[in-house]
Design goal:
With about 325 residues, this protein is of the alpha/beta class. The chain has helices at about 10-15, 25-30, 40, 50-65, 100-105, 120-130, 145-165, 230-240, 295-305, and strands at about 90-95, 110-115, 170-175, 190-195, 220, 265-270, 280-285, 290-295, 310-315, 325-330.
Length: about 325
């Protein structure tokens, strides 16, 4: 649902008593009344620096912990690793209109499974991707007659040719919520909108097959887990851990040879203050029926789900009136 930029609210009163759990259907109804635009899903902060700042931070964090995602020399990886035999796959849940997939995940991964419960949001994401509006899923179409249109067409054609020379990119669009969701079978509990893009090379060509199990190199959860109860969230995170590449053995649970990690879960969410004496708390926003959890509450969730915090990072550059945004890398 991408319930992203949220202004701070006093949480002391509701945090001192156990708040009611979020109402999933009420949350969907709230987002049904929000415009399917970047400004809409970012709560009115989509036209300033917020999306660019937070997208860049997310990409840098991914590259710092998963250096195998680098495709060209950089200070982090002077000698980028050879492409993996499998297609690097990432799950983006509560993906909204696909902003994070489009600008953060798709440039780094071969395949993305995009899951979003709000019909208007996931439909807009699918439309934009299929129309060639996403840079990494280019479409050229027929050459227009105007000079301005021709220049844009030439750039699109160049990107198409560039894409055809590489491994190819794909996004599988699924409409569905996370309550009862199994990442390994993403279309089983939702509506399959189909795959946009093509795979040129790499193992994993079954993407889009509802009966085939999907394995992930990364699972990305941003600004959506507040719509889940504690029990549902713990269950989802346990299933996510089981869906990581190598989770049945020790491969993904150890450091990779390049100093990074083979597979990780990332959670990027709003964080409120802990209660008196450092008590872990959460409080319910009645408007969109979502929980804002304190740092201590998030750590309780991760521990119960059997996850280890590898790194945590506070998002810099956000407006002062918003809640702190924190990202945890987990395994």
């Amino acid at each position: 649902m991408d319930s992203s930029a949220k202004r701070q609210k006093s949480n002391l009163g509701s945090a001192l008593r156990k708040p009611p759990g979020p109402d999933y259907e009420k949350g969907v109804r709230y987002w049904d009344n929000i415009d399917a635009t970047v400004d809409g899903v970012l709560g009115g902060f989509g036209n300033g620096p917020v999306p660019h700042v937070e997208q860049l931070s997310s990409r840098l964090l991914l590259l710092s912990l998963l250096p195998q995602l680098h495709t060209f020399p950089s200070p982090l990886t002077p000698l980028p690793p050879s492409p993996a035999p499998h297609r690097r796959t990432v799950l983006d849940v509560g993906a909204g209109i696909g902003r994070v997939t489009r600008h953060v995940l798709l440039p780094l991964f071969d395949d993305v499974v995009l899951v979003e419960p709000v019909s208007k949001f996931v439909s807009e994401a699918h439309r934009a991707a299929a129309a060639g509006e996403w840079r990494d899923l280019p479409r050229a179409g027929k050459q227009p007659e105007t000079e301005e249109g021709t220049e844009q067409w030439k750039e699109a054609q160049r990107r198409v040719e560039e894409s055809q020379a590489g491994r190819g990119k794909r996004v599988w669009f699924v409409r569905g919520g996370l309550q009862g969701f199994d990442p390994r079978l993403p279309a089983k509990a939702g509506d399959d909108l189909g795959v946009v893009g093509d795979a040129k090379v790499g193992e994993g060509s079954e993407l889009g097959d509802a009966d085939a199990s999907v394995v992930y190199d990364t699972i990305w959860c941003q600004w959506c887990l507040g719509h889940m109860t504690h029990a549902d969230l713990v269950t989802f995170l346990r299933r996510s851990r089981a869906a990581l590449r190598g989770s049945s053995g020790d491969a993904s649970m150890s450091e990779a040879s390049d100093g990074g990690y083979d597979s990780l879960i990332f959670v990027k969410e709003n964080v409120c203050e802990d209660g008196p004496d450092g008590k872990a708390v959460e409080f319910l926003d009645e408007e969109d029926s979502s929980l804002t959890r304190s740092n201590g509450k998030w750590l309780e969730v991760f521990k119960e789900a059997g996850l280890e915090v590898i790194k945590e990072e506070v998002q810099e550059g956000m407006p002062d009136e918003l809640f702190m945004v924190k990202t945890w890398a987990l395994r």
